[in-house]
Amino acid sequence: MDRSVAQGRPEAPSGDARMGTQDDGARRLAVVAGVLLAVVAFTVYIATQTDRFYDHFVWQAAAFLEGQAAIRYPVEMSDSGIGNAFFQDVLPVVSADGVARGLIPFPPLPALVLMPFVAAWGFSTDDQTIFTFLAAIDVAICWWMLGRVRIPPMIRLATTVFFAFGTVFWYTAQLATTWYQAHIVALGLALLAVGLALEADPAAQDDEPFVGEGVGPTLSPPPAGWRARLAIDPRQFAVGLLFGLACTARLSVIFAAPFFMLVGAGGSWWRRSWSAGLGAAMPVAALLAYNIATTGSVVHPAYERLYQLEARAYTNLGYNPAWSVEDPRYLVQNLGIMFLSTPDILPDRLRDTLGTIDEPLCTAVGAERGLFDQDCPIAMPRDVGMSVLLTSPAFLLMIPAVRRYGRSRLVTGASLAVLLVVLFNLMHFSQGWVQFGYRFSNDAVPFALPLIAVGFATLVGDRRFRAWAMPLGVGLVVVSVAVNAWGVVWGRLLGW
Questions:
Q1: pLDDT-derived band of residue 52, with 50, 70 and 90 as boundaries?
Q2: Contact between residue 264 and residue 236 where contact means Cβ atoms under 8 Å apart
Q3: Dihedral angle sign, alpha carbons of residues 285, 287, 290, 296
Q4: Distance separating alpha carbons of residues 72 and 93, to the nearest angstrom
Q5: What residue spans define the domains of the chain?
Q6: I need a surface site. Which of 82, 86, 137, 220 has the fewest CB within 10 A?
Q7: CB proximity list for 43: less than 8 A, separation 6 or greater
Q8: How far is residue 296's CA from residue 318's CA, in Å, rounded to a whole number?
Q9: Where residue 219 falls among pLDDT bands split at 50, 70, 90?
């Protein structure tokens, strides 16, 4: 008889049992880390929160609860601070119930999220705090998603911190008004879709040629027989459903579809594409049906009205009312904003009150410049937008990963997704003004983050760069966090 059993002592666990215990412990530790990251993010976002009154989705949720698609509009501001007459992006319509109403053009998913809260608290619903909380949940989802990428824990943590505080997502989360609410919802759903796709397809990260997967010189034919062609992978269908829901919050996200053709369950590019495409088609079709039912048009007509209004009102922004809402001719201007726009360095903020002075104004009045001095600042962010490479320099960590394009399906799919989403957004007449940084970068971030993590890990794993790769990567993240902290403070000071 084994003496350990006879004496009542448990046997030492086998190697497999020890490995299972270690894995369980690592998973529990990862869950705790994700919760802590979400708590820290929420604390920081709330501490820097700015009160604003752009609550279109509260009004939209209230309209849905009334059985209407059009919101009550215009409603003059009451003593309690409830009103919407200052909204510009509303298309007045003739209502059937005799109440003045208007249609807002934004996809309604954030309003659906708010419906139970509006049912409970009406127009006093604190939509900013609700979406700030959801933004903190997005940080936890980001941490979880990056756990599906084969990277060291330190790089996983650094990439999550970069997302939470080193990109314009911090500004998005603390402001959390109408446009930013759409970003928060879309980001969370897209991160879930990316994470589930990676979990179902760990081989997507491998470096091996994948001719026949949709990017090689030839394409493998779809499976023979209609039954095989129409077979749906349930996991990839769920991935596509989440992706489609993200698109119903931010339409431009739909151009990231190639990612799910190359990454996910199904075993072939055809089955991945068919399964994810069918899942995504359902919410997207529902959105199109909603537009047709409420406006008679697939594309919401309020977009064109808003475009013409802004193009004629804000002549300093370079809008051209003769062009389309989405127009390639905006590419040059918007590329300049996205990559080249700098802060306003040593601006003369007091010039309007003191008149024109030949020498630098702050010197003339004997004032010293300060980092956050509104009258005599060292530098101020530009409200039209700023270069993503200045506000979030850790995006540069994508470069080592992109060298694996064509070998890794993860890298190839993510690269195509980022490129197509950015290209579509660059053709849009507006780039998110008024803003800090470049808020449309939120649309591409769920697909850029795996590239950043893989690029960072590639640098660290290369013997030639090992000595300085980790300090460089962490340094880029720290600089990104510092710049975005500066931007959040300035946004609050300037009332953006």
A1: confident
A2: yes
A3: negative
A4: 10
A5: 27-52+126-307+381-494, 56-124
A6: 86
A7: none
A8: 31
A9: very low
Q: Is the pLDDT assigned to residue 11 strictly greater than 50?
A: no
- Positive or negative CA dihedral for 236, 237, 242, 248? positive
Reply yes or no on whether the pLDDT at 19 is more than 70.
no
Give the C-alpha separation, 242 to 239, whole Å: 5
Say if CB 101 and CB 82 are below 8 A apart: no
What is the residue whose two structure tokens read 């060291």?
152
Structure tokens at 247: 């698109």
- 3-state secondary structure labels for all residues of 126-194: CHHHHHHHHHHHHHHHHHHHHCCCCCCHHHHHHHHHHHHHCCCHHHHHHHCCHHHHHHHHHHHHHHHHH
- Could you tell me the CA-to-CA distances from 171 to 112, 207, 488, 489 in Å, in that order? 23, 36, 6, 9
CB 347: neighbour CB atoms within 10 A?
17
Mean local confidence (pLDDT), 323-327: 95
Tell me whether strands 101-103 and 71-72 are parallel, antiparallel or unpaired: antiparallel
In contact, 132 and 42? CB cutoff 8 Å: yes
To which residue do tokens 């601006």 refer?
347
Q: In what helix (H) or strand (E) does residue 65 lie, and over which residues does it extend?
A: helix 56-65
| CB of 494 closer than 8 Å to CB of 343 | no
Amino acid identity at 152: P
pLDDT at position 2 over 50:
no
**Tell me, what's the pLDDT at 273?**
96
Q: What is the DSSP string of 322-367?
A: TS-SB-GGGHHHHHHHHHT---EES--TTHHHH---SS-HHHHTTP
Helix intervals (H) in 251-300: 258-262, 269-295
Report the alpha-carbon distance of residue 240 to residue 234 in Å, rounded: 10
Residue with tokens 């370079």: 318
CB-based burial, 418-432: b 16+ in 10 Å, e otherwise: bbbbbebbbbbbbbb
